[in-house]
Amino acid sequence: MIHTDESISTVSEVGVVLLLFIAGSHSDLKTLKSVFKSSLTVAVLGVIAPIILIATASITIFAVGFNENIFLGIVLAATSISIALEVLKESGLLQSKMGNVLIGAAIVDDFLTLFILSLFINFNSTGSFDPLALGQTLILQVIFFGFVFVFKKCFPFFDKFLQTKSISLPYFYELFSLVMIFGLSILAEKVGLSGIMGAFFAGIILKDATFFNQVSEKKYLQQLT
Q1: Which residue in 30, 42, 73, 92 could disulfide with 54, CB within 3.0 to 4.6 Å?
Q2: How far apart (Å, rounded) are the C-alpha atoms in residues 42 and 51?
Q3: What gap in Å lies between CA 104 and CA 38, rounded to an integer?
Q4: Contact 32, 204 (CB under 8 A)
Q5: Cα–Cα nearest to 44, from 95, 106, 135
């Protein structure tokens, strides 16, 4: 009854971006740092194991070449972070230690998978390893994370500046938040990362803003009830 088209794909992508924003707004950066080692271990195993196991299994199942088997393993190594986050959120475990480990692992997992995929595509498209292209991508990604770090440090000053101004525009803070969410998502995509990473970091940055309650889901739920 429902056929996939461009509009459904667009709406689903917007939904995932907003879901990751909500997850970021419920996450604590200090807690994520405290479980980084556990998250890194889970992420590395979550990338290596699928690539090896799926590539090995596909050799016996599908009559395709070595590159196709490896590509299948890499693609299926990517996490379904949106589903995991929704389950954790509905179960009330999003802010638990297990929830933070899973969130951290999912972020690192996506980064590692995209990195390995870039290596794979680079090697197969040129027939040789191009360290220059890979180096440029890594530098852009480091710049992105540096920009997010500096932006988070400077945002309280910007937030205080906004509070000193009498802004009477309707839905200004809601529109500003959406621009920031999708802006960081697009920026993450441009540097070769997943757009949901940008949305997640937007949630971490905006959750401490004085106007956050005005744009959070709680306000609208209270209005409906």
Answers
A1: 73
A2: 14
A3: 9
A4: no
A5: 106
How does pLDDT run across 169-193, given as a tens digit for each residue? 777 888 888 999 999 999 988 888 8
Question: Is residue 220 scored above 70 in pLDDT?
Answer: no
Sequence-distant (6+) residues with CB within 8 A of 196 are 16, 17, 20, 81, 82, 110, 185, 188
183, two tokens: 């802006």
Instruction: Specify the residue for token string 């990362």.
Output: 193
Which amino acid belongs to residue 49?
A
Q: How far is CA 202 from CA 157, 164, 192, in A?
A: 16, 22, 17
Q: Which residues of 69-81 are buried (b: 16+ CB within 10 A; e: fewer)?
A: bbbbbbeebbbeb
Q: What is the mean pLDDT of residues 77-90?
A: 75
